[in-house]
């Protein structure tokens, strides 16, 4: 008996639990892709698996629906893998430890991957079950979370559908009909390590809530990488130090909850005390600034003794600090046409050190192409001034809202009849793959829906069990009327 065997709908949660047994973080999707391929093979379903692992599974119309136009169902198989510092789960090799608490489904110590595991579970349940529907074309892509890389190279030749229900949304009763475009900007700071002796300190910013860099950027939560940059900038004027390592964040589209710097101080005990005092003052300031947004932030200082280490020399360490401190982050502009919608934003989400190099990975989003290009240009300018290499990857188009959408009209009407109320029709700042697929398939009519989820891309991620059931029942209903 599985941990989710008592939940309804049984077939949906059966498959959700099955895929949670398979590690499927972005860039680590081959096993889950192969699982999906074998699923299709065992049921003699037409299917396609490409070189990167994208999967298309096709199920012909059920009796009586042969004359209905086909429908594409779409989601992604990868998840953002985040875990608590004390969590022993190796998310590259081990499955998730699922926890049911009332109406909440979570994972112990890690992110859940409801984004977008629930889409995969819905799709597999439909492909395996005996339901009434037109021809279904299930499209499950890889590496959506790191720039929609799967959708970017997907061969759409096998697909006949001109109607797409994307299952990558996190708010029940909201029909998404437009989204921002985006890109990832990588800044690579190269240096020649030198050997130095001194007092080793590790400064860590932690305790932040994090969240999805599109869906929750407007909440103005703290960005650990940028807060660390502020601390290091203040240290420049007070004490001499060299940087050994900089680390923070897990994905460019997740607001980083922690970041740390390992520093080597060559100075006296007085300078070391200055470091401790500056960090304590910064923590107090952060708590005041973020008291109603992210008030659990704190700064940890740990002395690691005197040692000899390979570091950036002092001048380059200063340059790296200036780069971090200069990075813009958060909301840059709000939409003038849709109140409450973020128009343009960015999120420095990854800070990592390899031998002789530091990389900052930044997610840029905007619903206006020129504003996205301008923000990328700003980052390139900062990179030029800092003498670092700037690379733009994963640039994807936005999904433009269609004033006339027959699919949306039918889905709204079905929702109204089923629940006696109107769904909300909105656009979002986060990216979904509808834009790329609509670019590949002319006249593709798209709507994105999903069950209620909270705190995605964090260790507090949760999926509402009852909402997952309602959305499933609605999906079955709407497939019968399309």
Descriptive report:
The chain is α+β, with helices and mostly antiparallel strands and 482 residues long. The chain contains eleven helices and 23 strands. The protein has a six-stranded mixed β-sheet. Strands 16-17-18-9-19 form a five-stranded antiparallel β-sheet, covered by helices on one side. A four-stranded antiparallel β-sheet has the order 4-5-23-22. The chain starts with 9 loop residues before the first helix and ends with a helix. 48% of the residues are buried. The model has no long low-confidence stretch (mean pLDDT 95).
How do you describe this structure in short?
The chain contains eleven helices and 23 strands. The radius of gyration is 24 Å and the shape is elongated.
What's the rounded overall pLDDT mean?
A: 95
Q: Which regions contain 5 or more consecutive residues with pLDDT less than 50?
A: none
The helicity comes to 25-40%
Give me the Rg, rounded: 24 Å
Shape: elongated
Strand-residue proportion: 25-35%
User: Gap between N and C termini, in Å?
Assistant: 36 Å
- What does the largest sheet look like? 6 strands, mixed
Structural class per helix/strand content?
A: alpha+beta
Enumerate how many helices there are, as a single number: 11
Q: Care to count the β-strands?
A: 23
Q: What strand line-up does the widest sheet have?
A: 1-2-6-3-7-21
